[in-house]
Write a structure and sequence with these properties.
alpha+beta, Nucleoside Triphosphate Pyrophosphohydrolase, globular
Length: 266
């Protein structure tokens, strides 16, 4: 299990393990092993390692490479995440989010000065000119499983593969509560009103820095009207006759399965 801890962040060292990235891909060794000892790769001057925490007592760093080192192959983050247990999923998600933050905040957004990372007990970059601080960005999103009697609403986005359905989801707007965002997204994407919105669970989603906050909701009124340009199709599906749904390692798949279990027991 990953221990984020409160200790001062160490510098990279030979006894640590490393998660290596190339562009948006994870570099893996045999058997899709993504935790790499220091002796298995050659560090270079452009490699900036970011501390992630401790994994079973070992320091973990994530770093990006401009080319693929010898002995490694590239694997899509999404594909690799689907192969993990919950603890490994959270480690990979955190590593990718921290590396994205490091890559995207090299310069101050206020005055343009090169940022400096401080090795403190938190991840922060400080502008040496205007003292503006940057922390890793986290974008809250809501994702909702909606019930109508013994059916749940599933939708397919415009770019999703044919036959693959999921829950309604979307980003939280400034000034909204999570519950308001859930009701608005449902209204905008499928044209119905819901009630009894209640929290279910949450999960980081590293594409690139979302925190998915899951809810259950009950149908109240309206007819399903897919939003043009966003939702290709949407409908009510009986819980014993569902189309293809997301992998159960994802919060979307977990919400659907959990909601079905709740419906069966009530």
């Amino acid at each position: 299990m990953l221990d984020i801890g409160t200790q001062t962040h160490p510098l990279p060292h030979q006894d640590a393990l490393y998660i290596l990235l190339h562009r948006s891909q994870v570099l893996v060794e045999q058997d899709n092993q993504f935790l790499t000892p220091f002796t298995h790769f050659q560090p270079n001057a452009n490699m900036n390692a970011v501390y992630c925490g401790q994994w079973h007592g070992q320091d973990i760093f994530v770093c990006r490479f401009e080319s693929v080192p010898k002995g490694f192959t590239e694997m899509a983050l999404r594909e690799l995440l689907f192969l993990q247990d919950q603890d490994s999923y959270l480690l990979l998600s955190r590593a990718h989010q921290l590396s994205t933050w490091d890559r995207d905040h090299q310069f101050c957004g206020r005055c343009g000065t090169a940022m400096r990372e401080k090795h403190t007990k938190e991840h922060t970059k400080i502008c040496p000119s205007c003292n503006l601080r940057h922390y890793p960005r986290i974008s809250p999103c809501v994702i909702i499983s909606i019930r109508k009697d013994n059916q749940i609403l599933l939708a397919r986005g415009l770019h999703a593969p044919k036959g693959k359905f999921s829950n309604i989801a979307g980003f939280v707007e400034a000034g909204e509560t999570l519950e308001q965002a859930a009701a608005r997204e449902i209204r905008e994407e499928v044209g119905i009103e819901v009630k009894n919105i209640r929290y279910a669970s949450s999960q980081p989603w590293s594409f690139p820095h979302q925190l998915m906050v899951g809810f259950f909701a009950d149908y109240e009124s309206g007819e399903i009207t897919p939003a043009p340009g966003e939702i290709d199709e949407a409908d009510w599906y009986p819980i014993d006759n569902l189309p293809h749904i997301p992998n159960s390692v994802t919060i979307s798949g977990q919400l659907i399965l959990s909601h079905i279990e709740h419906i069966k027991n009530n």
